[in-house]
Amino acid sequence: MTASRDSKKSLRRFLPLAIFVVLVGLLAYGLTLDPRRVPSPLIGKPVPVFELPLLDKPGTLSSSDLRGEISLVNAWASWCVACRSEHEIVTELSRSGLIKVYGLNYKDEAGNAKQWLKRLGNPYFVNAVDRDGRVGIEWGVYGTPESFLIDHNGIIRHKVIGPITPSIVSEELVPLIKQIKSEMS
Amino acid sequence: MKILAALCLWGVIWCNAIAAPVTIYKFDSKENEAIFYKLSDELRCLVCQNQNIAESNSELAQDLKQQIYTMLRDGKSEDEIIEFMVERYGDYVLFDPPFKPLTWLLWLGPLMLFFLALVVGMKAIGGHRSEKTNDAQYSSDDAERLDRLKSELNQSSDKDKV
Fold it and tell me: Is there a domain that residue B1 lies in?
């Protein structure tokens, strides 16, 4: 009787410590999360309907063009510093032929954008110009760079927020591209 | 000192530069104006989180305000605009998240914690009380002993008198 009461008492004594440890654990986990990464509700949904003029040639890019092939739509701007840092990887991805890379030139001056591409190289198949950011809103873009992986049916399968890194390519994009390819065949 | 003054001046100029881009929206009806201000108060600016798009001067906030304005002008309702934003930016864009399975913990968590605290508190108080009644039992034993001692004392004092 007294033994069980004692064990109950010691259990009660350790309860605050246990609660504290759980709380610290939760807070520590919270620190590893990035509040800037807002999960996109558009994943699994068809690309938003849009039609935009191209940057470097006459013509337009519309949502129906993003069908039939696996593609990556990369929202970028010449004023965006992080876009500069991912440029090399985007170029590599485009050259690999794994995926067709489209640019969404977001809220940029056409002159600056062209200069940027001339200086650093143009990895994009075509560039759509979203001067006022209205189409960006349709895509749920809230900062650049953001990249959307789109499958052959025009469904958004993945969104990368922030610059694409080599590990994002190898761990997220390439496996997903392979999976989509297996779905296609 | 001169440097300090220059810094202050620079600060004032800089603040003015930031406050400068204020767009004035003109509405065709009072209702639309009310909806506009309500929505820009309720929607989160995703770049400068913890600010709503009414308070924020970031480009995205301005664009979203413009979007709300154009949608209102096109005759869209408040619910339609909220739906538009949630479809693109998720529930996160709302400062007042909807009540659904994913947010049950968010909405009910504080209530659950409150009741948990209530139960723990009641138990703690209850435990304290039962300990007190134990004390009372002891004191009634003590009282008996005290009575006995008193009577003994009386007897002894009677003997002294004699």
Answer: no
- Give the range of the structural domain holding residue B114, as residue numbers without chain letter: 105-162
Instruction: From the options 3.40.50.280, 3.40.50.300, 3.40.30.10, 3.30.450.20, give the CATH code of A51-184.
Output: 3.40.30.10
Strand, coil or helix: what is B65?
Answer: helix
What six digits make up the tokens of A175?
Answer: 């496996």
The reply to whether B157 and B123 lie within a common domain is yes
> Within chain A, which residues score under 70 in pLDDT?
1-6
pLDDT digits (tens, 9 = 90+) for B116-162: 999 989 988 887 666 655 555 667 778 888 888 988 888 877 766 65
Same domain, B62 and B78: yes
Give the chain A residue whose CA is nearest to the CA of B89.
Answer: A140
> Do B59 and B88 fall into the same domain?
yes
Contact (CB<8Å) B63/A138: no
- Any B CB within 8 A of A14 CB: no
Greatest extent of chain B over all pairs of C-alpha atoms, in Å: 115
Q: B118 and B139: one domain?
A: yes
